[in-house]
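WARN no homologs supplied; continuing
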Amino acid sequence: MRARLRHGARRAGDEGYSLIELMVAMGIMSIVMAVVFGAIMQIYSATNEAEGTSYARDQLDNAFRRLDKELRYATWVNTPGQVGDRWYLEYAVADGCRQLRLANGVLSLASWTPPATTPGPPATIAGELAAPADNKPFKLYNPGDQPYATASPGTGGMGKLYAPEYSQIRLQLTATVGKVTLPFDTVFTAQNTSRNTYQRPNDCSKGRPST
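OK structure emitted
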């Protein structure tokens, strides 16, 4: 009898876990995993956003550095125009003609030398770009224009009567990478233009396609 009782009795520490204890442990583990997974996703999202911001800024910086060297020394600037879904802007420099083109999110620059009228292969300046809400990425302010005459009352910056002495080219673009969107709005001054020269015809205008 004693042998049976001794054999049938449970040993200390050999009871195991109850179903309730297992369910509580699994619930706690699920909460911990959800917190850890959420933290990892936030870190991943923040990393992607930082990379997207850096890439978008690089695109805009590339556009600014390249165009600042070109447009500053332009001697003539054509009126921007849209052909199909592409935007064009031609200008003349000392060694020939240049053509800015915005098409399919890519800003490119082509060059050629008169008397030729066909631009050479375009070189990409920046990508992931879009036109602004008014759909005019290129704007030209000629000498004597008053581009800010209709500014809202109280608007800071240039006065309403401001009129440039040189041709000015305003670029308004938006760079979008993933969820990151950065605006680009700057004005370049063509310092080799004047009120006496900007209206003269120039063969660089022949480089724009008609269709």
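The chain has one domain: 50-207.
OK
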